[in-house]
Amino acid sequence: MSSNSIEIKKTYDIKVAEVDDGAIESLDSVEKGFDITLDDDLIAVEDGDLVLSKKIHLINDALDEIGFTWYHAQLFCIAGFGYSVDSQMAMIQSAVKTYVDYQMKGGGYPVATEIFYGGLIAGSIIFGFGADLIGRKLAFNSSLLLSSTFGFFTGGTSSYSMYSIFMFLSTVAAGGNLATDVAVFMEYLPSKYQYLNTSMAAWWGVGQTIASLISWAFIPNNSCSSGKDCPSELNRGWRYCWYTNSGIVMGAALIRLFVLNLDETPKFLVSTGRDAEAYESIMKIARKYNRNCSLTLEKLKECGEIEPTYYDSKKINSPKEAIKELWKTTCVNVKILFSTKLVTRSTILIIISWAFIGISYSVFYNFLYIYIASHGGSTGDTPYLVYRNSTLANFVGIFGPILGGFLIMIPKVGRRGTMIFGALSGMAILFGYTTVRTPSGDAGFGSATYFFINIYYACLYAYTPEVFPTRARATGVALCLVADRIAGSFAPVTYWYGEMSGSSVPIWVCGAIIGCLAILAFFMPFEPGKKRSV
């Protein structure tokens, strides 16, 4: 037993010894009759609830016994497409904003971009917190459907105010979707395949490539060249982009509803005291794919009862009471993220990491081309070259998360080592990007940047839900996304400032911040590669 043992008195009296990677050196319950060994699980991230830890352990055993099935393959694709939608939305908005301004606004400060970030922040809060309150299933199934529906309306608007409103609503749903995708996939995944959490971020590059191809197909030949005379009949390209993208997202939404037919995740169910539903959710997969599963409902119930800290709609009698209980449960979930010293340290470092990557990544790419132009370079003035380079870079970015998935499986590298590698290599490439003066240089450095930055991004996306407690997993992810998007919302301000002043300071500061992400990763206390996620 190490010297930093602590005693937790909650449902049971237990001794927990925390080591540097967040593993448990020993866990001895004084409750007789339990012979469950929890050494395989990352229970150091939980808030001392031994009952929940034992139930999660049984769920993990059952998932490992069933193994990887066609259901998991489907979930990898359709949950991964949530990454795609989030990145598609960002790329489409970025690609069409100039031509929307030509037709409806006439230039000036990029208001729509700020509204876009506002939608992402609102979606992260609504869907992220909601997924821990009422379950992952509703958020997962509704987000893409709502995003595509409002996306169609966005493409049909005829005024800047209506464009901003419907774009905001579409973005709320898309941003909320990202808060649940990784959590849903991870809570069904056998521990042997946890590397797929990182590789799933390859869908981010797929989405960016799709958006670049859509923009490349419609904008060059269906858009105005300036805002002086830009009627709608000569400027249909941005509408075609919204319609096409929304159609693709609608297709994914219908697949979620009618093909995948997702059940509520078993880990969420046991965390809210619904053992019978959790058992049935797992056995449904085992029966469908003819896999052995020794889990029984009796084993789950023998672990004890979960403390009633969760939101239960059956006990609500009025809207006022519902709001009160929702707020109370949300506060409890947030407190869980700071329940111990190790969990608090982990939560703070992760949130700071998301804020750093949000501000640096967004500002760098908004400001980069201003910097290059002000130093005598040109990355291509024609729409063809712009969209060609963007498509190439985003396509190469697909393979960054795939490499990241392999790197995390190397014992001496793991999640933290992969993030350190991705951050430092990304910083080096971004600083090198400032030497670009030609379209071919832009294509090469752009591709390398997306590749290495996506290694870091993919690992951070997967690591974040892995080290948050089960009850507050979606809440934690939501807080991280909010930090990311609040920081990213400063990008238009910097863009506007840079365009006016031509200063080169922001680009060097942002590159340095990306390098600092490696330091934050080094001090993160947990290494999920050594334990099963809870």
Low confidence ranges:
1-35
Tell me the CATH architecture: Up-down Bundle
| Tertiary shape | globular
CATH class: Mainly Alpha
Helix amount: 55-70%
Which whole number gives the mean pLDDT?
A: 80
Largest sheet: 3 strands, antiparallel
CATH fold annotation: Growth Hormone, Chain: A
Order of helices and strands: EEEHHHHHHHHHHHHHHHHHHHH
Count of discrete domains = 1
Q: Tell me the strand percentage band.
A: under 5%
Name the CATH superfamily assignment. Answer: MFS general substrate transporter like domains
Number of E-state strands? 3
Structural class: mainly alpha
Beginning-to-end CA distance, first to last residue = 23 Å
Number of helices: 20
Rg computed from alpha carbons, rounded to a whole number of angstroms: 24 Å
Strand order of the largest sheet: 1-2-3
Describe this structure in words.
The protein has 534 residues and is mainly α. The chain has a single domain (70-263, 336-530), classed as Up-down Bundle (Growth Hormone, Chain: A). The protein is built from 20 helices and 3 strands. It has a 3-stranded antiparallel β-sheet with strand order 1-2-3, with no helix packed on it. β1 (6-9) and β2 (13-18) form a beta hairpin. The model is unreliable at 1-35 (pLDDT under 50).
Layout of helices and strands, plus pairs?
Layout: E1 6-9, E2 13-18, E3 24-29, H1 50-66, H2 70-105, H3 111-133, H4 136-155, H5 160-186, H6 196-199, H7 202-218, H8 237-260, H9 266-271, H10 275-288, H11 297-302, H12 319-336, H13 341-374, H14 383-397, H15 399-407, H16 414-433, H17 439-466, H18 473-488, H19 491-501, H20 505-522
Antiparallel strand pairs: 1-2, 2-3
Helix pairs in contact: 1-10, 2-5, 2-7, 2-8, 3-4, 3-5, 3-18, 4-5, 4-8, 5-18, 7-8, 7-14, 13-18, 13-19, 13-20, 14-17, 15-17, 16-17, 16-20
